[in-house]
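for the writeup, i need someone to sanity check this before i put it in the appendix. the sequnce is what the collaborator sent (i think, or maybe the updated version? ugh). structure was predicted straight from it, no edits. if anything looks off just tell me and ill rerun, i have time this weekend
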Amino acid sequence: MVELTLVLVGALLLNIPCGMRRAGKRKFSWQWFLWVHMPIPLIVAARILWHIDIAFIPLIILAALVGQYVGGWLSNR
C-alpha cells in the first residue's frame, strides 16, 4: 500500500510542473502533447518496479490529471 501511495503522490507532483508548462501552449499542439505525456514513462516505470496491480491504473491516471490541472491553475494565477 505504501508503494501505491508513493506512485500516486509521485504522479501528482511530477505532473504539476508539466501542467504549468502545458498551460501556455495551444491545445493539441506538439508542445502541449509533449508536456501532457512527458511524465508517463516515469510513472509506468514506477508502477512496474513496485509491482502495482493494473487495477490501480485509473487511480494513477486520476492523480496525473489532478497534477496537470493544479499546474495549469498555478500557471494562470
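Residues 2-76 form one domain. The chain has a mean pLDDT of 95.
thx in advance!!
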